[in-house]
UniProtKB/TrEMBL annotation:
Belongs to the GPN-loop GTPase family. It comes from the Bacteria. The lineage of its organism: Bacteria, Bacillati, Actinomycetota, Actinomycetes, Kitasatosporales. This is ATP/GTP-binding protein. Keywords: GTP-binding, Hydrolase, Nucleotide-binding.
Length: 196
């Protein structure tokens, strides 16, 4: 007799699952975020950054030696049995087609932002708006990055009033989970209250 999914240990009975995509520019901490919140060992597709890549990518960061070339994948179970499947997108603009395909079936997007390069977040927000996927902006608080008020950040991002903005340290479980809960809460809001 075939065993149920819960007997095989995939999902608890009655679980609701949610696919979300973590987006943002190169090096904003997407892979770090998925790794921090995932309760399973995350899938990663990291490749070494090379001098050759400098010809096509703006990857001027001295703290990183690898970059995501396809996606990250992780899973987190939240209170109430909601299972969140996290897909971390690649950050470089030439991967836009890959990001569009990751957005297929996604119920929400988490856009990580580094305040050193706010303008590099526009492409991610545009992709989400284009796909009609609701999103939350999470400002990753790198110690080297300038601090701005929420109002200034909203203005710089031209963020609609109904899109939540949170601050996160992608390396810290508590903080990353808070950002994830903000997104899932937004996704589970009553139908009709989303504008994108
Ligand atoms: N100070 C600080 N460093 C961070 C934080 N999050 C990530 N980092 C570091 O910043 C770098 C960015 O890491 P990744 O997680 O690979 O970034 P990414 O967005 O996945 O990068 P790509 O896939 O190449 O676009 C790593 O060296 C992290 O250790 C943070 O919240 N604070
Ligand atoms: Mg990455």
């Amino acid at each position: 007799m075939a065993s149920s999914a819960s007997e095989r240990g995939y999902l608890p009975d009655g679980a609701r699952s949610v696919k979300i995509v973590v987006l943002g520019a190169f090096g904003v901490g997407k892979t770090t975020f998925v790794g921090t919140v995932s309760e399973m060992r995350p899938l990663r597709t990291e490749e070494r950054l090379t001098r050759a890549g400098e010809l096509v990518d703006d990857v001027a960061v001295d703290t990183k030696s690898t970059t995501t070339v396809a996606m990250d994948f992780g899973r987190r179970t939240l209170a109430g049995g909601i299972v969140v499947y996290l897909f971390g997108a690649p950050g470089q603009p030439r991967f836009a087609a890959m990001i569009r395909s990751l957005l297929t079936g996604a119920l929400g997007g988490l856009v990580l932002v580094d305040t050193r390069h706010i303008d590099r977040s526009y492409a991610s927000i545009d992709l989400l708006e284009e796909a009609g996927v609701p999103y939350v902006v999470a400002v990753n608080t790198f110690s080297e990055s300038p601090g701005y008020s929420e109002a200034v950040l909203r203005d710089a991002l031209t963020l609609p009033d109904d899109r939540p903005l949170v601050f996160v340290d992608a390396r810290t479980m508590q903080s990353a989970k808070h950002a994830l809960v903000a997104l899932v809460t937004d996704i589970l809001r009553p139908a009709g209250s989303h504008t994108p």
